[in-house]
Design a protein that fits this description.
Layout lengths: L2 E4 L10 H10 L1 H19 L5 H13 L4 H14 L6 H13 L2 E5 L8 H6 L4 E3 L3 E4 L2 E6 L7 H10 L8 E5 L5 H6 L2 E4 L8
Parallel strand pairs: 1-2, 1-6, 2-3, 6-7
Antiparallel strand pairs: 4-5
Helix pairs in contact: 1-2, 2-3
Length: 199
């Protein structure tokens, strides 16, 4: 059975969901106050001083460390309700085409899957992989419990989900360097297929 793998940020939706989620959950003022830190951490990741995983973790921690799991889940549900207005219509159309053909459809994203899954379920996608969060005592520690889900980690997640992927026709939809390893193993790769079109 063919497998269709979709990146999320910039592929299905028109933006990076992490800063959008943080701004809407914690407020514009809190986001602006932390913007210098975000820029510094981004630069340290680009120059290799910090790993992308650690830089991203520090950004996330500065906003949400200590938040209860219950509050975080509610924030994710609120954000998921916003996702339909960000979705590229052409991306949703492509997802539905795969579903109508009976293909397996999965989202593999570097973002935290907790705010993707509620939306994904509304369009019939049951498999969502991403960067998972560490929880202790019912609160977010600010750390990740899995590697940052980009690059080779995306390939590893796909093979974990579908060990027989090599024997299936693989469609991959992505838009960034974090998707290049997945795109490289695809039978039918699609790079920036939707954001070139008018919304």
């Amino acid at each position: 059975m063919p497998i269709a793998v979709f990146d999320f940020d910039g592929t299905i939706i028109s933006r990076d969901s992490l800063p959008d989620f943080l701004m809407r959950t914690c407020g514009r003022t809190a986001f602006i106050l932390r913007l210098p830190l975000i820029i510094i951490l981004k630069l340290t990741a680009l120059t290799g001083i910090l790993s992308t995983h650690r830089a991203k973790e520090l950004v996330f921690s500065s906003f949400l460390r200590g938040m209860s799991v219950a509050d975080f889940r509610q924030a994710c549900l609120r954000y998921a309700a916003r996702i339909p207005e960000l979705v590229y219509p052409a991306a949703l159309e492509e997802i539905r085409k795969h579903q109508e053909k009976g293909d397996k459809v999965v989202i593999i994203s570097a973002s935290v899957p907790d705010w993707i899954r509620p939306w994904a379920e509304t369009v019939g996608i049951r498999q969502v992989e991403g960067t998972e969060l560490e929880v202790e005592g019912g609160v977010l520690t600010g750390r990740f419990s899995t590697p940052n889900c980009k690059g080779t980690e995306k390939v590893r997640r796909l093979r974990k989900l579908y060990p027989d992927v090599i024997s299936e026709t693989l469609y991959v939809y992505g838009d960034s360097s974090g998707d290049k390893e997945l795109l490289a193993i695809a039978d039918v790769p699609h790079y920036k297929p939707f954001n070139k079109r008018q919304r």
